[in-house]
Amino acid sequence: MEEDDKTSLWIKKISYVSPIARPLASRKLTKRINKVVKKASKTKSLRKGVREVQKFIRRGEKGLVILAGDISPIDIYSHIPIMCEDNQISYCYVPSKDDLGAACGTIRPVSLVMINKNEAFEELYTELHEEMKTLPVPI
């Protein structure tokens, strides 16, 4: 696929993102996130879905929370970023629930995931965590 095709596909995906989906990961960061999600899925270090992620945040589990920005209605998980901020958990949005589901290894779209630290991909996890910290915090 040529660079122009990739750019137009990215622009199309971003056009479906909710206006409150901030901070939104860049194209490069989204690619890295998908890579880490795939590795986390293989090592069973991944929590998928609103109910499961919410349960483990309440229990005090730490990790990185990745939310899909094209969920409608956004009220389904609009409380999750607040929970993450209260528990000092890094989070960001990616443009597509379908891509997030594919990275998890499922056919169905996934609204959000929580990646837990694992020895198998610890270096990638740390890099991703540092880059997510630099994203601008929504007001």
TrEMBL record:
Subcellular location: Nucleus, Nucleolus
Keywords for this protein: Nucleus, Ribonucleoprotein, RNA-binding
Domain of life: Eukaryota
GO biological-process terms attached to the record: mRNA splicing, via spliceosome; snRNA pseudouridine synthesis
Record-linked InterPro entries: eL8/uL1-like, H/ACA_rnp_Nhp2-like, Ribosomal_eL30-like_sf, Ribosomal_eL8/eL30/eS12/Gad45, Ribosomal_eL8/Nhp2
Cellular component annotations (GO), alphabetically ordered: box H/ACA snoRNP complex
Chief localisation class: nucleus
Ribosomal protein eL8/eL30/eS12/Gadd45 domain: residues covered: 32-124
Role played: Common component of the spliceosome and rRNA processing machinery. Required for ribosome biogenesis. Part of a complex which catalyzes pseudouridylation of rRNA. This involves the isomerization of uridine such that the ribose is subsequently attached to C5, instead of the normal N1. Pseudouridine ('psi') residues may serve to stabilize the conformation of rRNAs.
Family that this chain belongs to: Belongs to the eukaryotic ribosomal protein eL8 family.
Protein name according to UniProt: H/ACA ribonucleoprotein complex subunit 2
Organism per entry: Octopus sinensis
